[in-house]
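queue> holo job accepted (guanine)
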Amino acid sequence: TIYFGTFIHSPRDEASKLDVCEEGAIGVNSDGVIDFVERDVKDIDSIVDKYPSFKNAEIVQTRPEGTQFFFPGFIDTHIHAPQYPNAGVFGSSTLLDWLNKYTFPREASLSSLSVARTIYSRCVARTLSHGTTTAAYYATIHVPATNLLADICSAAGQRAFVGRVCMDHKDINPDFYCDESADESIANTCLCIDHIKKIDPNYELVSPIITPRFAPSCTAEALEKLGKLAKETGLPCQTHISENRNEVQLVKQLFPEHDSYAEVYDAFGLLTPKMILGHAIYLSKKEMELIKSRDAKISHCPVSNSALTSGGAKVRWLMNGGVTVGLGTDVSGGYSPSILEAVRATTLVSRHVALSDGDECKLSVEESLYLATRGGAKVVGLENKIGGFEVGMEWDAQLIGLELVETTGDDFAEEEVVDKVVFEGPKSAGPVDVFGWETWDDKVAKWVYNGDDRNTLGVWVKGRKVWSRT
Ligand code: GUN
Ligand code: FE
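queue> job finished
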C-alpha cells in the first residue's frame, strides 16, 4: 500500500515540535513494514517509477483540502480492560475506597467467561476506534478470561501487552477476589504466558506482561517470585506506584524495612528497564533518581489522577530528570478510553502543576502528543517499531479528519442556516477569513482540544486496517 498526502509525527528525539510533511508518500510492504518515505511528492506516478515493486499497490490518500492527515497510532501504556464498563462511575471516591467499592467487585465478575467476552470485545473495539493501536492491558486474576483478552486483541489486530493480575495478600484483597497463594500467582501467570506463546509465538502483536497489581496487593513472597520470573523470561512488567497519599502510607506500613515505594520494587528485582510504573505522583527525588538509574518507565495517567483526586504528577520534573514517560488512560480510574483525552488532560494538569511549581511545568500540545506516541513506544520497549513514520518501522497509524473541528474555509451546511438570519450590523468577512486560516500546528491543537473519535477515520496496525469510520 502507498499512503499519500499529509503526514504528521513527532521527530524521534524532539518532543517540542511536530514534523509536518504535506506532500508525502509512504510505502508499506505486505509485512506491514515501512519500505520508503518520500517528501515533496508531486504525483504518485513518479513514486511507482522509483519503486516498481509497488506498481500494483493500493493507494490511500488524504484529502487535498488540508483537512486530513496521517498520524502515528496512539499507545495506551496503562489500561484496565475489565474495568471498561465502569468508565465514568467513580463518584467522589479516592483510590483505596474506589478499589473496594467499584473495582474489585467488577473485576471479580470476569470469573464468567461470557461477561469477559462482552467486556473485552467492546473495550478492544472502542480503544481501536479512538486510535489506540497498542495497549498495555491489566486483565484480572482469572486465567481463562485473561487468555480470552489475548485472543480478542489478536483477532481484532490490536497490538497488546496482556497481564494476568497478581494479588495474593489476604489482609488487603477481598476474600472474593484474591489469589490463594504466591505460588498460585506465579503458576497462573505462567499459564497465561503459555497461552500467548501458543497464539503468537514471537509476540509480534500480543505479548504477555508480568503484572503484580501494586505492592500492597502482593506479599513479599509473590513480589520476589515475580521478580525472578521477570528475570528468567525477560518479559515486560507493569504495576502501580505512588498514586495516592494513603496508598504510599500503606506501603510504608506493609514494607517497613524498605525506605520508599520505589525501593520495595527494586528490592524484589522489579525495577528494570522493562517495568512500566503507573502514576508516579508522590515520588521523592531519590526515588525518581533510582527509577532513572534502573531505566524503569513511567505511565502518566492524568485523567485518572484528576478523577480519583490522586494528584498532579510532575511530568516536567520527571522528563528533566531523564525518566521515560508515556501516557495511559487508566480506565476506569480514568473515565475515558481515549488517549486523545489523555493528551488534553496532560496539558491541563501540567498547567495546574505550573501554578505551584512554575511556568516551565506547562506541557505543550506537541509534547503531549510526543508522550502519546514516541514516549509510549519507549515505555513499551518498541521505539524502533512504532510511534513514528520511518523506514523499517511498522505501519501503526491513524487517519485524522478535521472536518468536524472547523478548520476549513470550505462551504459547510451551517452557512445555509446563517444566510437566512437578517443581520442588524455590518456582515462579517466571508467564512474563509473565519475558518481555514490555521497553520498545521493550529489544526493539530484544534484536534487535541476539540476532537474526539469522530475525527479518527481509519486505523491501521502493522499495515492491517483494523478500524474504519465508514
Ligand atoms: N492501584 C491498584 N489497583 C489499581 C487500579 O485498578 N487502578 C488504579 N488507578 N490504581 C490501582
Ligand atoms: Fe491503574
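queue> Residues 45 and 196 are 43 Å apart (CA to CA).
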